Amino acid sequence: MKVLLGSILLAFGGAQGAAQDSVTSIDLSDPRYVAGAAMLDAEFERTVDETILLTEIPAPPFGEDPRAEAYLAMFRDTGFADASRDEEGNVLALLPSGAERGPVILVSAHLDTVFPIETDVTVNREGDRLTAPGVGDATRNLAVILAYARAMKESGLRTATDILFVGTVGEEGPGDLRGVRYLMTQGDYAGRVKAFLSFDGLDPEEIIASAVGSRRYRTTFRGPGGHSFSDFGIVNPMGAMARTVEELYALEVPSDPPTSYAASMVSGGRSINSIPDVVELQVDLRSFSPEELARLDREYLAATERAVVQENARRLTSKGELTVENTLIGDRPAGGGGGDSAIAQTALAAYSAHGFAPEFSAASTDSNIAMSLGIPALTLGSGGTEFGAHSLDEYIELPREDTLRGMRAGYAAVLALAGTPPEQD
Q: Which of 360, 348, 342, 354 shows the shortest CA–CA distance to 6?
């Protein structure tokens, strides 16, 4: 019998023997896999129903509690009596291996969506298509990892390593990865996670093996303000903001590693006939490279300071000078082992065994935090297709056989990382 991905566990310091670098084969006749795959098939419609149920519970960043409570109840109904929520609000359900406080394989999907609480999230189902804001990103994956947990629990599956199933809060936008950040650095399982899988997106032919880092700022320019006619000539926060944007867009950034910036939101002013006293600018800075991101960060902050100096030098300061305050409102670290890492090769083997041809990519997901801590991590798709993520017209298509193939591939990857107890070798 071929080894079902046990070598990854060994690379993390498991108890089965000498470590190996990667896994090159998957045995789909392994009884552990066969039993789980059969349950995924038998309960396919249940996962669709659970996708609908969860989607119709609004879950904006910092407003995930109702959905989290429903998700917690689902785990408890599945047999995870000790499922709980941590202090940050994440939902946790542990499938123990029997080892006392040993390493943990963490399998996650995020609870939040980008949509405000008042958004109509009613799901319209037409055959294989489910249409609703947030149905794909990433509500569908909550139902999928619940299905994995149910299949393992009800089949009496034993693994060499604990598996912690998690619904995380705060993955989207202003959440700034707060759920997984707490989980990995302060929560009860901090220091025990040996591998991290995030299911985010449906495409089984994309394996996110590197993290796109981002730094997000709210830059506030303040001045004395005044009448647009009688105070003409005094310093204007709008002028400094405009110079900052101009300087930002004059910056040259590499295409390899991919690096980008965007001036994305601006607000301020009192009336059309007033010189504003406050103007706010929000920017998004991104890169595959921690070094390039740090350089871009420095250059942007320097540009804001220069813009204020120039505005104060060019216009009147008799009523007061212009100032600037940069507030960091998002900090997602870059990193990751890329496609050559052992964990990436394991996932590649699992998905390839199911007929997919995955390509490695980089993105900003919950995996960023694990990658930045040096913990092997990936973000995977769970099967089916999705369209219009982050739009009101978002929908997913879940044709049974193709979707099940993706679900089984993800299930195989989870088994891979959890490993086989020695007596089952």
A: 342
Judged on CB neighbours under 10 Å (0-12, 13-18, 19+), 323 is middle
Residues 6+ apart with CB under 8 A from 397: 128, 129, 130, 384, 385, 386, 387
- 240 three-state secondary structure: helix
Helix residue ranges, H only, 263-341: 290-314
List, for residues 312-352, the tens digit of each pLDDT value: 999 999 999 999 999 999 999 998 888 999 999 999 999 99
**E strand or H helix that includes residue 91:** strand 91-95
CB contact at 8 A, 145 and 108:
yes
Rounded-to-integer distance, Cα 24 and Cα 201, Å: 25
Q: Residues 77, 78, 84, 90: what is their CA dihedral angle, to the nearest 10 degrees?
A: -110
pLDDT, one tens digit per residue, over 167-176 is: 999 999 899 9
For the question of whether the overall pTM of this predicted structure is more than 0.85, the answer is yes
Q: Phi, psi (5° rounding) for residue 336?
A: 110, 155
| Nearest Cα to Cα of residue 76 among 64, 84, 68 | 84
Q: For the stretch 31-42, what's the b/e string if a residue is b when 16 or more beta carbons lie within 10 angstroms of its beta carbon?
A: ebbeebbebbee
- What number of CA atoms fall less than 13 Å from residue 91's CA on the CB side? 25
Please, how many CA atoms are within 13 Å of residue 201, restricted to the half-sphere of its CB?
A: 19
